[in-house]
UniProtKB/TrEMBL annotation:
Domain named OmpR/PhoB-type: residues: 128-226
Protein name: DNA-binding response regulator
Species: Sporosarcina ureae
Top-level lineage group: Bacteria
RNA-binding in keyword set: no
Principal location class: cytoplasm
Length: 229
């Protein structure tokens, strides 16, 4: 049974979401002190975090940053604001998905299920637990990339996108294929979200010297090269 930490200061909405999630057999934990979210997160050790952007004391972006310094637990943002920058910011901080308020509960449930399947089930494929790519060791279970320049830890979205591309290295993988693989149902995700995730992945792997190894094929998709030129 999965434990979901719901960081939402609107008590009425919190109870509504908790009731629906409980019906789906999820354990739901709330926040007692919105100024001490990180400590409560550490104590609860949830399998997934749902966090509102507008919170008392510190906003959701702040707590996402703090959580990401300690954990790669999947994070879904909630927002009542309609600024496109909110979604971009959440993805840049390493969030796994974004839900705009007001939302249909079936959409939220679908997103939660997709994230949990992606994060906790994909590593069942034992043939891709470890792989060498561009002289770097890729650990799909731990979510790390290691070469002579060091080790980086990738978010669940980043490692999954890399997995999809490496499985078909030197081939063009369409944006639609990646979106379908990553989110299960492309109706629930924007095209811009994928762009943000791929750009963040490129930036992260460049930290260990892997530059220009994920190529954009305009109007087609992306391709992971076998060797760095």
């Amino acid at each position: 049974m999965f434990t979901i930490m719901l960081i939402e200061d609107d008590q009425t909405l919190f109870e509504e979401i908790k009731e629906r999630l409980t019906q789906w057999s999820y354990l739901v934990a709330g926040i007692g002190d919105f100024g001490n979210v990180l400590q409560e997160f550490t104590e609860i050790k949830p399998d997934l975090v749902i966090i509102d952007i507008q919170l008392p004391k510190f906003d959701g972006f702040h707590w996402c940053r703090m959580i990401r310094t300690h954990s790669n637990v999947p994070i879904i943002f909630l927002s009542s604001r309609d600024h496109p920058t909110d979604m971009v910011m959440s993805m840049q901080l390493g969030a796994d998905d974004f839900v705009q308020k007001p939302f249909h509960f079936d959409v939220l449930i679908a997103k939660i299920q997709a994230v949990l399947r992606r994060v906790y089930n994909y590593s069942i494929d034992q043939t891709l637990e470890m792989k060498t790519w561009c002289d770097a060791a890729v650990d799909f279970v731990k979510g790390t990339l290691t070469n002579e320049n060091g080790t980086i830890e990738l978010t669940k979205n980043e490692i999954f996108i890399l997995k999809v591309l490496i499985e078909r290295k030197n081939e063009i993988v369409s944006r639609e294929e990646i979106i379908t693989s990553l989110w299960d149902d492309e109706r629930f995700v924007s095209d811009n979200t994928l762009t943000v995730n791929v750009n963040r992945l490129r930036k992260r792997i460049a930290e260990i010297g892997l530059v220009d190894v994920i190529e954009t094929k305009v109007g087609q998709g992306y391709m992971a090269k076998e060797k760095q030129l």
